[in-house]
Amino acid sequence: MAIEYLGLSEINGPLVVLEGVKGASYDEIVEFRMENGDKKLGRIVELDEDKAVIQVFEGTDSMSLMNTHTRLTGHPMEVELSEDILGRTFNGIGQVIDGLGPVAAEKKVNINGLPLNPVTREYPRNYIRTGISAIDGLTTLIRGQKLPIFSGNGLPHDQLAAQIVQQASLGDDSDEKFAIVFAAMGVKYDVAEFFRRTFEESGVSDHVVMYLNLANDPVVERLITPKVALTAAEYLAFEKNMHILVILTDITSFCEAMREVSSSKGEIPSRKGYPGYLYSELATLYERAGIVRGGKGSVTQIPILTMPNDDITHPIPDLTGYITEGQIVLDRQLHGQAIYPPINVLPSLSRLMKDGIGKGYTREDHQDVANQLFSCYAKVGDARALASVIGEDELSPLDKKYLIFGNAFEREFVGQDAQENRTIEDTLNKGWELLGLLPKEELDRIDTKILDQYYHETTRA
């Protein structure tokens, strides 16, 4: 029989302290019942002899030191799951908020997940098509990969996330089951409504599970949301044999919630005021992606984070870069030129791309085209720097061709319409069309046979 405690020792922000506790365990879920009959949930985040520090998910408003009843549940945070979660919308702690009634649960699963033995992991191979040339062509997303998007305040990462949800697929010839788990943390109501409306209007809602934590929701809930979403993704992938793409936005909100709660607990801060365990907390989330040997499903992650002051050396993008396999970087200058999506391809990379593209996956010329586009676009920067010093008219004919290539590359390859869903063939053919603006002898990163097969000269005014 569960023991019920009356009264609290201390209330501090989202935390409460309960003394005289027996048999409690770390991460255990606690139920609170207030004097007015309201109920709240919390979890134990610290234990010291008979004293327990508890995070309250819904915030500590209306809780009193004298008349709050506390009951230990004896288990960690669990979420109810079944295949019926597809097409449904939940709040940050997994409760239904779409008005369609409860989900018929098949099982309850611990949101902290089970550690995955590294030996059982399978190396990611096949790619996921997003329909966006700058991603599919140059920073290809591979099944089982974690590939973050580094953005900044005011950049269209929400629009890009919605487009990826609408367009992502395993390719036209795949008959495998594919679904998306979308988790938003600390977003404003209008942004949440934009996602919900966009998915409904585009007809993709039936294979999307949404977890929404709004900006006015309790800050502690933000720490739970990505774990709930990843638990749902693991269930669908490893028990229902589906390929799952998880989009987490915004990881910066998650980290700031962690900083706020850490400050409330009186912990010694580390870089920029974030707790010293920021790295391990991020790794705990990101490493819940991958493929298990012998299984048919996979979990692929696209975490989105806004870099404070566009600073890529800030602790959040810095640590994320250590853990993940590459990054996609959005650029404010390209955004200022009305180029969408404003992906800066030079600092962007996908470390697993080389093993998931080419013959049998995309097309045999894919790696060569990507290498050559990177190389040529890097030379565009040199030509632009020279033009800013001596003037465009004084450039050599070759440098002028590089300027034409650079402008066309940004407008036509990187830039595309928000509703445009390009196949991998469209992307590679567009790449060849742009490489045709340059002399054949400049294309030194492409195998001679492939160059002879695909190269054709292109002229632009």
TrEMBL record:
Residues 131-350 form the ATPase F1/V1/A1 complex alpha/beta subunit nucleotide-binding domain. CDD domains: ATP-synt_V_A-type_beta_C, ATP-synt_V_A-type_beta_N, V_A-ATPase_B. GO terms for molecular function: ATP binding; proton-transporting ATP synthase activity, rotational mechanism; proton-transporting ATPase activity, rotational mechanism. One of its GO terms (biological process) is proton motive force-driven plasma membrane ATP synthesis. Keywords: ATP synthesis, Hydrogen ion transport, Ion transport, Transport. The keyword Ion transport applies. GO terms for cellular component: proton-transporting ATP synthase complex. SUPFAM superfamilies: N-terminal domain of alpha and beta subunits of F1 ATP synthase, P-loop containing nucleoside triphosphate hydrolases. Residues 9-63 form the ATPase F1/V1/A1 complex alpha/beta subunit N-terminal domain. The keyword Metal-binding does not apply. Residues 355-455 form the ATP synthase A/B type C-terminal domain. InterPro entries: ATP-synt_VA_C, ATPase_a/bsu_AS, ATPase_F1/V1/A1_a/bsu_N, ATPase_F1/V1/A1_a/bsu_N_sf, ATPase_F1/V1/A1_a/bsu_nucl-bd, P-loop_NTPase, V-ATPase_su_B/beta. It comes from the Bacteria. Produces ATP from ADP in the presence of a proton gradient across the membrane. The V-type beta chain is a regulatory subunit. Belongs to the ATPase alpha/beta chains family. This is V-type ATP synthase beta chain.
